[in-house]
Write a structure and sequence with these properties.
Elements (H helix, E strand, L loop, with lengths): L1 H17 L12 E8 L4 E3 L6 E12 L12 E12 L10 E9 L4 E10 L1 H4 L23 E13 L4 E3 L3 E8 L4
Parallel strand pairs: 2-9
Antiparallel strand pairs: 1-3, 3-6, 4-5, 4-7, 7-8, 7-9
């Protein structure tokens, strides 16, 4: 009986030694993305602004379980940034979503800083409802009659970890006021 136990223990030891524990096997789905606005404009003059840019946007990569092991396979390659719009006033008309391809990497536990990043195209600032605020079009929202349009900009980023897991940030919203001119 002892020789059989010895053979089984030897076989088990060989199997365990043959299985190399590697950090690359870390659960790469354990990373979260968070978007933050830094130095955000609050009021935008449509006469002066064709493409709306946010001065600084940071994308933070957070390890979901701080006690877990992380690896570079949890680095996130960003693919797109999406901005959607809702009204923060009584209006219902909004610009279409803005989707921007982005090729950057956020290291696991690190931060990516985007500077002067576009969040609204000229097509969006030059079509209703924002085009209503242009002086040539009267300078007021034709739907509400107001000279100010308040829009909520909601930003999300989408990417993939180096191990192939899809990751997206939680939505982050900032309210902006659009007026005809800041002058």
């Amino acid at each position: 009986m002892k020789p059989l136990k010895t053979v089984l223990l030897l076989a088990l030891a060989l199997v365990l030694l043959g299985c190399e524990e590697r950090t690359e096997r870390t659960d790469s789905g354990g990373v979260l993305l968070e978007v933050e606005f830094v130095n955000t404009v609050i009021r935008v003059g449509v006469e002066e602004t064709e493409v709306l840019q946010i001065e600084t946007i940071t994308v933070n990569s957070i390890v979901a379980d701080p006690n877990a092991t992380s690896s570079s396979l949890m680095d996130v390659q960003l693919r797109t940034l999406e901005v959607t719009f809702t009204r923060a006033d009584q209006g219902t008309r909004v610009p279409p979503p803005y989707v921007f391809n982005i090729i950057s990497t956020v290291p696991v536990g690190g931060t990516l800083t985007l500077t002067d990043f576009p969040v609204m195209s000229s097509e969006q600032t030059r079509t209703p409802p924002l085009s209503d605020l242009l002086i040539i079009n009267g300078g007021f929202d034709r739907e509400t009659g107001d000279t100010i349009i308040r829009l909520n900009l909601t930003i999300r980023v989408f990417g993939t970890t180096l191990s192939g897991t899809s990751v997206s940030s939680v939505p982050r919203t900032q309210t902006l006021e659009f007026v005809s001119t800041l002058l």
